[in-house]
C-alpha cells in the first residue's frame, strides 16, 4: 500500500496514432479508485511523449502530454503503461506498429519502472525492446500471429484477456485494458476495492486474466480462391455434417491435402475451423435472440445442447448460458 503521503506514479506513453482507449481506459480506472475511496492517495497518472506538443491519436483526438520521455526517465515510476498503434491496409488487414523511437524510450523507462503493462497491440512495442523474450504474453487476436512471427522468443498466447509474467503484464483487446487495470488495482489495494471500481464502470464485475477473448477471428485472410470457396461452403452448410471427406470432395483434393491446406491457410484443422464457425453463429444468436439453447444448438449445427456447451468451453472458456448473461443485447427480441 502507498504511504500516507505518496501516490503511485503511472506513466502512460503517447505517440502519433496511438489508440485512444489504450490511453484513456487505464487512466479512467485509476481515477475512479480515488473517487470511489475518497482517498487522495492511490495513483498519479501522467502522459509522457517525445515532446510537449499535442499528440494526435488514431481517433483524431489530440492529447496533451504532461512531461517528456526524457523528464519521465528521471522519475521513479510505479507502473509504465505501453499502449499500441496499428496500420490497416486496403484489404482491412491489421498490422501492429512499433516506432523505433518509442521502442528506445520504453527500454529506457522500463529501467525506472516497478512494473510494466502493455495494452492491446502495445505488446509489440514491448517485444521489440526484448523485454518479453522468454516470457508468456498476449495481445489482440488480430495481431497475435504477427507477434509470434516477429518475436519467436516470446511465448504468445492469444486466448487470455491479460497475462502476468513476473513484473510485466500484457493485455489483449482494447477494452480488456479495463480488466488489466482492475487487476493492477486489486494487486495494489485489494479485490474489494477493485470490485467497487468495476461496479462504477458498469462492468461484468472483474474478469480474471484467464478469461478467453470473446472477439473470435472468424474471417482470417485467405490467400487462395479455393480456401475462400471452402469457407463460404462451410458458412452455407453449418447445420450439415461437414466432414473432412465432404470438404475434400468439395475442394477436389484428398483428405490429407485438405487438412494441410487448412493448416497452411488458417492455422487450424478443418474440424477446429468448423467448430469455431458454429460457435461464432451461436454467439450471435445468444446475444440477439431469445432462442432456447436447444434451438441455438440446432441452428448452428451442434444438434445437442451438450455439444454446444462443450464447444463453448473449448473456444471461449465459458458456457452458453453464462455468455448470454454477460453479452445479451438489451432490447432485442427476435
3D structure, described in words:
- This protein has 334 residues and is an alpha/beta fold.
- It contains 14 helices and 13 strands.
- Strands 5-2-1-6-9-13-12 form a seven-stranded mixed sheet, with helices on both faces. A two-stranded antiparallel ribbon has the order 3-4. A two-stranded antiparallel sheet has the order 7-8.
- The longest helix is centred in the last third of the chain and has 19 residues, at 270-288.
- Mean pLDDT is 86; it is low at 1-5, 215-219 and 329-334.
Short key terms for the protein model shown above:
334 residues, alpha/beta, 7-stranded mixed β-sheet, two-stranded antiparallel sheet, 45% helix, globular, disordered C terminus
Helicity range of the residues? Answer: 40-55%
Could you describe the largest sheet, including whether it forms a barrel?
Answer: 7 strands, mixed
Total of helices = 14
Global structural class: alpha/beta
Distance between the termini: 50 Å
Count all strands and give the number: 13
The averaged pLDDT comes out at 86
- The largest beta-sheet arranges its strands as 5-2-1-6-9-13-12
Rounded to an integer in angstroms, the radius of gyration calculated over CA atoms is 22 Å
Instruction: Please report which band the strand proportion falls in: under 5%, 5-15%, 15-25%, 25-35%, 35-45% or over 45%.
Output: 5-15%
Overall, the morphology is: globular
SSE succession: EHEEEEHEEEHEHEHEEEHHHHHHHHH
Q: Residue ranges: pLDDT <50 for 5 or more in a row?
A: 1-5, 215-219, 329-334
